[in-house]
Amino acid sequence: MTDIDVAESIREGRTALGIELGSTRIKACLVAADDPTRVLAVGGHEWENEFVDRRWTYSLEAVWSGLQAAYADLVADAQRRHGAAPSTFGAIGVSAMMHGYLAFDASGDLLVPFRTWRNTSTGPAAAELSEAFGLNIPLRWSIAHLHQAVLDDEPHVRDIRFVTTLAGYVHWKLTDRKVLGVGDASGMFPIDAATRCSYDETLMERYDLRVEGTALTAPLHRLLPEILIAGEPAGELTAAGAALLDPTGTLQPGIPFCPPEGDAGTGMVATNAVAPRTGNVSAGTSIFAMVVLERPLASAHEEVDLVTTPAGDPVAMVHCNNGASELAAWVGLFERFAAVTGSPVARDADAVFGALFAEALEGEADAGGLIAYNHLAGEPIAGLDEGRPLVVRTPDSRLTLANFMRAQLYGVYGTLALGMRVLADEGVAIDRMFAHGGIFRTAGVAQRFLAGALDAPVAVGETASEGGAWGIAVLAAFLPHAIAINAGESRAADLGEYLDQRVFAGAAIEVAEPDAADVAGFAAYLDRYRAGLAAEAAAVGAL
C-alpha cells in the first residue's frame, strides 16, 4: 500500500479505530480494515486514578477530557504520518479496565463516583455471594460492589436503574446503547456456562431473593447491560457521541461499533490467546493471567475468577491489583540519579529501563535473598486489604544492583505466581503463554523471567507494547468481516479463525523457553515471598 493509498483509506474510512482506557494511559490505535496488523496512527493521554474518601476513582470529567486528548493525538499522528486526517472509520471499538462500579439513576446521572477494580472494600459482599453462588466472586466484580452498597445501606441504592463498567459507560454515551461484550460482562456477573452469551439466570434469581426487602427494588436483569458476542453489531456513533469524542466537529456520526470489551479480553485478542490451552499475561498497573480452559475446574478457588473470551469461551483468570507501577517508580529513581550525575542515558527512559533490565540478568537466580513487594494497593490473593511496597532482605542476603533489579522484576510476578500455582494443582495445561505490556518492550528480560516464574514457554509478539488498544481495534475490524461472512448471523463468526488466518498468520513471535536455573531460582524466591507476606501485613497494620 502506497502513501497515497493509505491517505485515501484514512479519508474514506477503510480503517478500524480502537480506544482503550487503561489504568495510567488512554490509548487510541488506528489500523487498516483489511489488514489489522498495519497500525496507521496512534494517540495517547496520561492519566492517574485518585484516592478519594478511601476509594480509588477517576472522575467522568477526566474520562472525557482524556478520550478527547487521545483521539486528537491520533488525528494529529495520522496527519503527520500520512497527510490525512480521519473524519470517519469503518468501525470503532471501546475497551477499558474491567470490573468496578458505575451506577446511574433513571435520568442517566451518576449516583456515586466511579469505583474502580482497585478497590478492596467489598470483602463482606464477595464472601457472601461466593458462598451463595458456589463459585468465586472477586472483590472487584461489579456485583460485589453493588451488593456491598446494599449491605451498607448506601442512600443511592434505591435510585439505581443501570450499572455498567467503564467500557460500557463510554460505549453507551457514544452510541446510546446499553450493551457489553461478553468478556467484560463476565466481570460483572457470572455467565451461563451453557449459552455462553447471557447472565446465569438461576443465580440472578437467587440474588433477587437475597436482596428482597432491601433498598434495591429493581430485579438484577434490568440493571445490567445486554450481552453481545464478538462480531455482533453494537450500535452506531450518534451525533452527540461524535461531539463528545471530537469537539472540533470533524468526526461524522453513523460509524458502526463492535461490542465494548474489558482489557482482559482485548489482551487475549492482542496475543491470539483465545483457544483452549493458550493463555496470556497482561502487565501494567495491574497484572493478570488468562488461561482458556478445555474443561471446567474441579472446584472454586478464591484466587481464580471464571470469565470468558470475547467469543464466550470459558477462561480462568488470575488477577492481581498490583503490577509494574512499583518497578517503574524504582526505575524513575535511578533515572533521576543518572540525570543529576549528567549521564546522557537519563535523556531516554527506554535506555534506563534497558540498562537496569540487562543488569537484572546478571543477578543470582533467586535474587540473592532479596524480596520486593509491589503492593501499592490491596491484594486479595496475598490477603492484603491495603498495600505497602517493601524491599526486604536478611543480613546474609547479597544486596547488589543486579539482585535488586531481579527482585523487583520477580516482585511483579510474585502474587500472580501464587494464583497460577492453584491452576497448576488443578491440572490446567498450558501449551504457551503470550505476554504483552510495556514491561516486555525491553527484549528478552521480563519475558525470560516470566517463563521461569510460570515454568512455561512465554511468547511476545510485535504488538506486545501496543496491548489492548490494538486488540480492540482488531475486534472493530472483525465486525464487518463477521457480518459479511455470516450475512448478519454474526454469532456463528469464528474469532479464533479470524485471528489465525487474517491477523497472526505472518506475525513475528519470539518465544522464551523456561530456563531451569530461573525456574528453581524463582521457586526459592516465591517461598520466601510467601513467608514474608506476614511482614507485609504487619506493615499495613503499623503504617
TrEMBL record:
A Gene Ontology biological process term: D-xylose metabolic process
The record's section on Pfam families has:
FGGY_C, FGGY_N
Keyword Transferase attributed: yes
Q: Which GO terms describe its molecular function?
A: kinase activity
Question: Residues in domain Carbohydrate kinase FGGY C-terminal?
Answer: 280-478
Q: Which InterPro entries match?
A: ATPase_NBD (IPR043129), FGGY_C (IPR018485), FGGY_Carb_Kinase (IPR050406), FGGY_N (IPR018484)
Note the CDD domains from the entry.
ASKHA_NBD_FGGY_BaXK-like
Instruction: Tell me which family the UniProt entry assigns to this protein.
Output: Belongs to the FGGY kinase family.
Query: What is the protein named?
Result: ATPase
Q: Which organism is it from?
A: Agromyces intestinalis
